[in-house]
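Q: My labmate handed me this sequence with no annotations at all. I'd like to see what the chain might look like in three dimensions before we decide whether it's worth expressing. Could you predict it?
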Amino acid sequence: MNVIPSEIQTTDHSQHRLDALTDISQRLLQRARELGATQAEVSCSEEQGLDVNVRLGEVETVESTRDRGIAVTVYFGKRKGSASTADLHDSSLEATVAQACAIARYTEDDAASGLADPELMAREFPDLDSWHPWTLGADEAVDLALACEAAGRDADSRISNSDGASVGTSQSLSVYANSHGFIGRERGSHHSIGCALIAGQGEGMQRDGWYSSALAREDLQAVAAIGRRAAERTVARLQPRSLPTGQLPVLFSPEVARSLIGHLLGAVSGGALYRRASFLVDSVGTQLLPEWFAIEELPHLRRGLRSAAFDGEGVATRRSALVEEGVLQRYVLGSYSARKLGLHTTANAGGVHNLQVAANAGDLASLVAGMSRGLLVTELMGNGVNAVTGDYSRGAGGFWVENGAIAYPVDGVTIAGNLRDMFRNIQAVGDDVDVRSHVRIGSVLLGEMTIAGDH
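A: Here is what I predict for the chain of 455 residues:
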């Protein structure tokens, strides 16, 4: 890791702005009560950032952003109405509450609607180390992006072109408050540097890249290292071959392995379950994965990408198992989907918070070394996944493995199976975690999938 130089931040106005957003939320809640709402909730947010893109040594875009939003939801019994605005003038705020109330009066009752139960509201707000603003000027951001791209283009003579390099930084403030008396305040930062390159000529050209992202700038990789990694990945893809159709082991690299967990999450999320649009309906308590497999949610992980003391409804988050000994322990629910299913919220309104998938093997290199033959997948294309049946079919690229070593790059193949079978057929999870995602997982080896090539 490399500490990237930046200007010294002298003034932090974030707490003052959070105070202002808190004040707005309380005024809106009070006005909703005056207009007859039995319950109400308000979300206020502000975000600012800088994004720079360069290509072939020239600046393409420099974009400074500053956004804000106020969302009001009111309940009249079991009738719900919502409205939003980006205008903080009193007249606009007044109109927003009035509009939400007007909508609620004309909607039908929904037995599952309403705030989360008051006793579930968060009462402790630990410091999760999520606030690391980077006072990055446009000139410095451009210099970093140019250096990243130059390192990649200079790394190998086979790099023939560039899709550019980018540097981005953002910081966000948010307040969620509701008529239970709950007020939750959050602030967070996010930074990224990336580079995409092109190698080869004509129809033989290949594209790939690399990026680094983190909440704190000191956790970013050095720009030169990112450029060189992008170059290495790109030239490694030159002169790819296809494969004959067959049943073979498939090893997912960490950056694509997390998509498998994404499919699991989609299938056990409340919205899909109460609509009966999931292949994992009524699956809690059943064994979906090998006995050694475990997934734990860690919402209070310091400097975690999705750490939070409360979910999108103010419900206190807690450390809990999603999968234990291969058995699904619970669904992923907010209060609305929980009521639709006759269950209780799992504090996941708005999504999950930092999933940790337990490893039972070494890194990618050791998993490759243990394969006699098979496909290492480093890229997935398309979205051929049926959420109702679990059928899986996606375009893939990567490398053919022979006798424990990478033999040649592979492109133009399709990998297929059924997610139920794929989950049961996981043989190993590596310890080479890709830290750029809130789904913390290493490489994943599946014992067998159908691989279809063009010959």
